[in-house]
Amino acid sequence: MTLNLSQPLPLAASYNSNAASCALDAAFSSPARAYGLLHGGELVAERYASGYGASSRLRQWSVTKSWSSLLVGCLVTTGHLSLTMTLEDIFASSLDASAWSQVDDAAIKKAIVLEDLMKMESGLEDGQWNQQGTLIDMLNHAQYTSSGYRWKYLASTHVLAYVVAEASGMAPQEYAASDECPLLPSLGVHGTSAATWGTADVQWDTNAQGYGTSAYGLHTTLAQMLKLGQLHLQGGLTAPGGVQLASQQWLSLATSSQTTWSPWDLSDDCSGGTLDGYGYQWWIYGPPSDGGGGGGGHYCAIGYGGQYICVFPTLDAVLAVAANDASDSASCALISLVYGLGLADGAASTPCPGAPHQPPPPSPPSPSPPSPPPPHQPPPSPPPPSFPPGVPQGGPQMPPPPPTSPPPSPPPPSPPPPLPPPSPSPPPPPPPWLPSGDSTSQGFSESEDAISSDDDGGDDDDTALVGGVVGGVGAAALVCITALVVLVCRKRRPASRAVVTATHVTSPVEMTALRATGTSTKSEPVVSGD
Question: Can you tell me the distance from the alpha carbon of 119 to that of 129, in angstroms, rounded to the nearest whole number?
């Protein structure tokens, strides 16, 4: 069924009171924030955690990459780009010989073709973080690896933002609202521009040049997540007789594995199938081993912390999940059920015993559109890469928490009343990279090294820094014993120390894929950001 995606999603007759919704509701738990299931073009089920609702803007993290992919698809469909163009071709009008001389490994980077960027086989990997406020900064953020054109996940490099801006002559968020590629209006989102960069439905973080981020930084409602999946399910057509945003050929390539070398055919803990590859900013999965789903697989947009948009073509279904869970377990508890829900056998219309029809959940008041970010505001640090969880089963786990300081020593038994202790020494200053305040700003800011959320309508309980300052203050006691003329005093100074631990957070599946590709998994100091 082809929907008019500019309109509200139609509710199924058995909305939130069918067998599929009951099964998903039973598996819905914190730290999941929201989920929604479309089947046959109808909203079969949705649920929100306390404090969240239909108008809540949910941080997408690397799901943003899949939105960026569609913008590139528009540019390829209209002829502004081709997959065989090199970075030298794309940036010909912006980078002359003098500008390229400021780029590390310029000769190699010039020759990288667009298709290799789309499928993460460009030979680039994320380097030392910089603000990426200019094209040259971005190109120097991405480091070339001499190990060859193996699959390398670019988590925090916003190269596609500059590609879209160069090819369209507009900032990415402007192009997404343009007549040539009306992605946002076609999904019912209006009013987004470089000046406002946000509406009640969408917020798109920008850099100092006003470019919307391409690797992360988008915030949308659950409905917009579902609509992006449905748009791909209906072949890029925005409505019956509507706009074809990108060609069906592009969408077919984007949502099937395009990698030439990769650690694929991995067991997938989330859906019970296999992780089969990577398309153009989409993760590609095979069907479950038990043959569920009619023999077909599915594809997902995935963001750190459990953000998923999964499209199941053989089931005519889309599942979207938003969470705040570095292990992805809350999201996977829902995704793992989809093939077994019985959607092909009528589970979406079969009543759930004892569950009356539920109206749509109430929404918190829509927030006012955010103010434009001040010019040249420095962005926060980048996030950890967003990989699917737990592959293979029993594989690497999340890094252990940082060690805590030993417990304080007990005081001596029954001492005489102590003398007044001396004033304590001031604590040592924190390391220079430890944040001194709120590091969130409007910039290239989805550092997937930590979850730091500003979702509208919800408990702001996200972890802003992985690790922290832990210290133990040893017991201090002053015991003086006087015997005749000799005064014996034993004094133990307060033991105070600050241990700062910052860990580059990587999900279990990401660890597997990174190790298989030979990518470093060393820990690095991180500061929270979007």
Answer: 22
Please state the rounded mean pLDDT for residues 371-375: 39
Q: Where are the beta strands (DSSP E) in 425-504?
A: 469-470, 478-483, 486-491, 499-500
- Proportion of the chain above pLDDT 90, given as a percent: 52
pTM for the model: 0.74
Tell me what pLDDT residue 165 has. 98
**What is the C-alpha separation between 58 and 485, in angstroms, rounded?**
73
What is the biggest distance separating any 2 CA atoms in the chain, rounded to whole angstroms?
104
What is the percent of the chain with per-residue pLDDT over 70, rounded to a whole number? 63
Computed over every residue of the chain, the mean pLDDT equals: 75
Number of H helices, E strands in the chain: 14, 17
Task: Please confirm whether the linkage preceding 416 is cis (ω < 30° from 0).
Answer: no
The closest alpha carbon to 457, from 77, 85, 35, 59, belongs to 59
Find, among 307, 283, 308, 309, the residue nearest to 297 by Cα. Answer: 283
Length of the chain, please? Answer: 530
Phi, psi of 189 (to 5 degrees): -105, 130
Residue with tokens 């929100």, as numbered in its chain: 48
Residue 463 above 50 pLDDT?
no
* pLDDT over threshold 80, residue 367: no
Mean pLDDT confidence for 54-78: 97
Q: Which tokens in the block code for residue 30?
A: 């914190």
DSSP state of 135: H
In whole angstroms, what is the distance from residue 227 CA to residue 301 CA? 13
State the pLDDT confidence band at 292, using cuts at 50, 70 and 90: low
- Tell me whether the omega of the peptide bond preceding residue 31 falls within 30 degrees of 0, making it cis: yes
Helix or strand holding residue 321 (H, E): strand 317-323
The whole-angstrom separation of Cα 237 and Cα 231 is 6
DSSP string, 370-387: PPPPPTTPPP-PPPPP--
Q: Any idea of the CA torsion for 277, 252, 340, 221, to the nearest 10 degrees? A: 100
pLDDT digit string (tens) for 118-168? 999 998 989 877 789 999 999 999 988 866 557 889 999 999 999 999 999
Q: How far apart are CA 447 and CA 61, in angstroms?
A: 8
Q: How far is CA 261 from CA 71, 107, 159, 342, 449, in A?
A: 26, 23, 22, 35, 26
DSSP state of 345: G
The neighbour count for residue 399, using CB atoms within 10 Å, is 16
What does the alpha-carbon distance between residue 72 and residue 217 come to, in Å, rounded to a whole number? Answer: 17
Q: What DSSP letter does each residue of 186-215 carry, written as one string?
A: HTT-----TTT-B-SSEEE-B-TT-PBPSS
Token pair 């959320």 in the structure block, residue: 453
- Residues of 325-347 as b/e, b for ≥16 C-beta within 10 angstroms? bbbbbbbbbbbbbbbebebbeeb
